[in-house]
Design a protein that fits this description.
Blueprint lengths: L1 E6 L2 E8 L11 E8 L1 H10 L4 E9 L2 H12 L8 E3 L5 E7 L5 E7 L8 H5 L2 H6 L2 E5 L4 H11 L4 E4 L18 E5 H8 L6 H13 L4 E5 L5 E4 L4 E4 L12 H11 L5 H16 L4
Parallel strand pairs: 1-4, 1-8, 2-6, 4-5, 8-9, 9-10, 10-11
Antiparallel strand pairs: 2-3, 6-7, 11-12, 12-13
Helix pairs in contact: 1-8, 6-7, 8-9
Amino acid sequence: MRVAVIGAANIDIIVKSKSAIVQGESNPADVSLKAGGVARNIAAMLALRGVDVDLIAAIGKDPFGKMLMESCKDIGVNTDAWIIKSNASTGVYLATKENDGELHTGFTAITAPESIRTAEITKHKKLIFDADLLVMDLNLSEKIINVALELRDHRPVMVDAVSVDRIPRIEKFLNRIDILKLNRLEAEKLTGITLDTKERVKQACNNIVSRGVTRVFITMGMAGVCAADYKNAIFVPAVPVVVKDFTGAGDAFSTGIILQFEKDLRTQAESGITLAGDHLTRKM
């Protein structure tokens, strides 16, 4: 299988408190700096599992960009299609975390993906068309999402929604998406349905499928996953784990469903849950 991934590659700066965070005080913490970004994380996890992966990402001409590119090359992600911007900085995600690993506050400064121009994507049209699956995250502009969908010419496409504020970028393209992965808040934004019961989660899944998405996966933390296609909607329970770090668990879930993208709903969902569970128990 060959997968093309388009979206964000950035540096994650993680500040993890050594004890419960006290507002307005100086809190002792551990700080780490590593490669991140939804698209990059998915591409990296696929490559580490033997999948041929081409990543199209925009970075700045700066030390962070160089670090990102080298880290991807080291694990087998093809970076030949990367877009290096002299007028933009490599994206940064800064997160503060509680001592148990749960996110306290996150900040993003990721503008390079949104600065990608049409010509910078169309020059890679063969790479995008030839892949068995195209994966995009919603850090891309609406214009570039449309260009990439046109280049695919109705071949399989998966989208990871990334965050609530980016949901409007995908609404007009739902009937061109084969797999859509959202979390609970993103699904609520897309459908306008409050997902406080299983019946409403199922209703949201059916709403999204009725608007043209072939398969949708809504992750709900320890409540598991609802997966749906035009035939049915199913619930798959989460695997109980002792969480060491929440970072990248959603990206791991996306990777799991990509690895089984030609299989049935349940197999895909279980694959995503297994990979996310493994990721949650790995100390970052």
